Amino acid sequence: xxxxxxxxxxxxxxxxxxxxxxxxxxxxxxxxxxxxxxxxxxxxxxxxxxxxxxxxxxxxxxxxxxxxxxxxxxxxxxxxxxxxxxxxxxxxxxxxxxxxxxxxxxxxxxx
Length: 111
Known about the structure:
It is globular, with a radius of gyration of 14 Å. It has 3 helices and 4 strands. It has helices at residues 9-17, 53-67, 78-85; strands at 23-27, 38-41, 90-93, 103-106. InterPro entries: D-ribose_pyranase (IPR023064), RbsD-like_sf (IPR023750), RbsD_FucU (IPR007721).
């Protein structure tokens, strides 16, 4: 059995293949996902799992302190997000039912 923090095999595989500037999207239950983009569906039922925006924002702030660098955060319109989603390596769909509850993560480098 693989040792590590990330247990979901599809998510682990996508993350292991990300290169500099590649991106993945974590979406609410209603985001339309392009047929050409890999869909990883975590939704069990309405609201499960939720997206936990505040916890994600806090975790990003904690990472900035730990790493000693700034992590860019940018809010974009829904139409821009949908266009960027087409370039995502995968969309991870949650059960979140709040409107426009989506996050696009862009891969960086560790140096």
